[in-house]
Amino acid sequence: MNTSFNSVCALSQPCPDCYKNTTETFVMPKRPPENGAISQIYETKRNIFINITPEKDEKMAVDIISPKNHEIIEHYVVDPSEIQPDNASYVEMLALEKYLVMKGECEPVLSGFLTILYEKEGLNEKANHLDEIKRSSDNSLTYLSFDDYLKDRKATYAILDWKPHKLKS
Fold first, then answer.
1. 107-141 per-position pLDDT tens digit
2. Long-range own/partner contacts, residues 50-59 (CB < 8 A, 24 or more apart)
């Protein structure tokens, strides 16, 4: 399962419950159960966990989970075939990325960047950040290894080229 957690804390000690962004290290709350999730993200700014789980009909379940009691605060069912990346919410973009990863179209490299892009919008508020995603990918060779750059480009263009369509069942 893909998680957005670091395993070494600021003191360079093994720390499975530490998360480090570019400026701070956070001690994460205890992780909620995965319950079949293919991705579990801890959002430090919103102080929530996000579990993403594929459903049998190729839709993606997205659960917003309280770190205090691990209760599901919000539950979304996202149909990737209906997502329009140029007018999509944070929840939809995360679900689309994980759907593309699950289908082997790309690797899970954009979740953290999506978190930054959508930090001013609500979880389900529509926005268009495709230009920022493309610009970041175009510039990523300056700070990524060539292999990571290729993974980033593949993921970026999987999203940029995505068109809503009817999924084959």
1. 888 888 888 888 888 999 999 999 999 999 999 98
2. 50/94, 52/94, 52/95, 52/98, 54/98, 54/99, 54/102, 57/169, 58/99, 58/167, 58/169
Q: CA-to-CA distance for 19 and 86, rounded, in angstroms?
A: 30
Q: What is the model's pTM? A: 0.80
Domains of the chain by residue range: 2-160
Torsion-angle region of 111 (φ positive above 0: left; ψ -120 to 50: alpha; else: beta): alpha
- For residues 77 and 59, the answer to whether their CB atoms sit within 8 Å is yes
Structure tokens at 70: 């691990």
How far apart (Å, rounded) are the C-alpha atoms in residues 155 and 99?
A: 11
Of the candidates 48, 42, 36, the residue with the CA atom closest to the CA atom of residue 1: 36
